[in-house]
UniProtKB/TrEMBL annotation:
Database matches in PANTHER family: CELL DIVISION CYCLE 20 CDC20 FIZZY -RELATED (PTHR19918), MEIOSIS-SPECIFIC APC_C ACTIVATOR PROTEIN AMA1 (PTHR19918:SF5)
Protein known as: WD domain-containing protein
WD repeat start and end residues: 273-307
GO MF annotation terms: anaphase-promoting complex binding; ubiquitin ligase activator activity
Organism of this sequence: Beauveria bassiana (White muscardine disease fungus)
Record bears the keyword Kinase: no
Keywords on record: Repeat, WD repeat
Length: 382
């Protein structure tokens, strides 16, 4: 009798153990199934919490079938698996910026005698890199900064001559090149760290506006000691009173490079755009520097693509005369439109390179092979 009772007890314990194992397997399989369903729902962007679908009421009895879409998850704080970590859709609120009280009165007042009251003159420019303000007062170019104060950059005692446009080079280039144009057609380029202008161009007519390209471009260097080495260059647009836009390329080495090579850089004209009937009032670039627009007093605004102006393929050629200083000339082919003409034209009279005050001025003629004249039809939009 005792052995029979023991066998019955062992049988009952075995049944209980098998039942517990079966329940454990079932719970584990259910948990795996739930995890699998959660991951499949997340991958398919299916909401498992929201039980209500959004319906749009029909506008008429003959309206097309109503589209049904799944609503966004109701519980944004629900944690889900992204494949590498657990996260949720809650957004962390950033602290609101502290309000800044701006005074109504200016914190600094600068004396600006002879500041020209002319709608067609833009004689103020600011560089956020060197935090310097440039202003043209009459025929004198000044700069002001919080640290250095007022500094006279360039002056030319000529009666009836005044600065008509001032502009700083691109922020990306970090060259601090200040361009100043005058009503007599003179255009000077000078860095804020230079005592004298490095380049001066004599334009045929009054300089009405200036604009630097906001991006730099890698081009073969014109340095005779490092020819054809890719170097960052700046692009400058110059508008005059006759409605012509001139496109210059400027290579501007640093001061220590000028001292090392005794070479101040290069500035050459590559395009001349005759598009307006009256003076150019404004020039502006797109943020990427791919497009630029010109506006004239003839109430016409034209949009240009730099690739169309300079050509899609820039071919570099070295002068065959090895006895002279090698120059890299750019042949810039481009496709002509039916209303577009191409012809060689005389460049602005000369470019003067000033190295030191007592050194003779070297004149560099702009090559006629690289100068292109574009007329109506070269713009993208008008």
């Amino acid at each position: 009798m005792i052995s029979t009772a023991n066998e019955q007890q062992r049988s009952a314990n075995l049944d209980t153990s098998n039942g517990n194992q079966q329940l454990s397997k079932e719970s584990s399989s259910k948990e795996d199934l739930f995890n699998y369903q959660d991951r499949v729902a997340f991958a398919l962007n299916i909401n498992q919490v929201g039980k209500i679908l959004e319906f749009s009421p029909p506008t008429s009895l003959r309206s097309p079938p109503i589209a049904i879409k799944v609503m966004e998850p109701c519980d944004l704080s629900r944690t889900y698996w992204t494949g590498c970590e657990w996260t949720n859709n809650t957004r962390r609120l950033l602290p609101a910026p502290k309000s800044r009280a701006l005074p109504s009165a200016p914190f600094k007042v600068l004396d600006a005698p002879y500041l020209r009251d002319d709608f067609y003159c833009s004689t103020l420019a600011y560089s956020p890199i060197c935090q310097t303000l440039a202003v043209g007062l009459g025929n004198t170019l000044y700069t002001w900064s919080e640290d250095a104060g007022v500094h006279m950059m360039h002056d030319r005692p000529s009666q009836g001559v005044y600065l008509s446009s001032v502009a700083f080079s691109s922020v990306y280039g970090r060259k601090f090149i200040l361009a100043g144009g005058r009503n007599d057609g003179s255009l000077v380029l000078q860095s804020t760290s230079d005592a004298l202008p490095r380049f001066e161009v004599r334009q045929p007519f009054r300089v009405s506006c200036l604009s630097w390209r906001p991006a730099c471009t890698l081009r073969p260097s014109k340095n005779p000691f490092n020819p054809e080495v890719p170097i960052q260059t700046e692009d400058l647009l110059v508008g005059d009173d006759t409605g012509t836009v001139y496109y210059y390329i400027v290579e501007w080495p640093m001061n220590w490079e000028v001292s090392r090579d005794n070479w101040p850089g290069s500035m050459y004209l590559v395009a001349k755009i005759v598009i307006h009937n009256q003076q150019v009032c404004g020039l502006s670039w797109s943020p990427t520097g791919r497009l630029f627009a010109s506006g004239g007093n003839d109430n016409i605004c034209c949009l240009f693509d730099v690739d169309d102006v300079l050509g899609e393929n820039q071919v570099s050629r070295v002068s065959q005369d090895t006895s002279r200083t090698p120059l890299v000339r750019h042949g810039l082919p481009f496709r002509l439109q039916p209303t577009q003409t191409l012809r060689r034209s005389a460049s602005p009279s000369f470019i003067r390179t000033i190295v030191e005050e007592d050194v003779d001025i070297r004149r560099v003629q702009t090559s006629g092979d690289s100068l292109r004249t574009l007329t109506n039809g070269c713009e993208r939009h008008r």
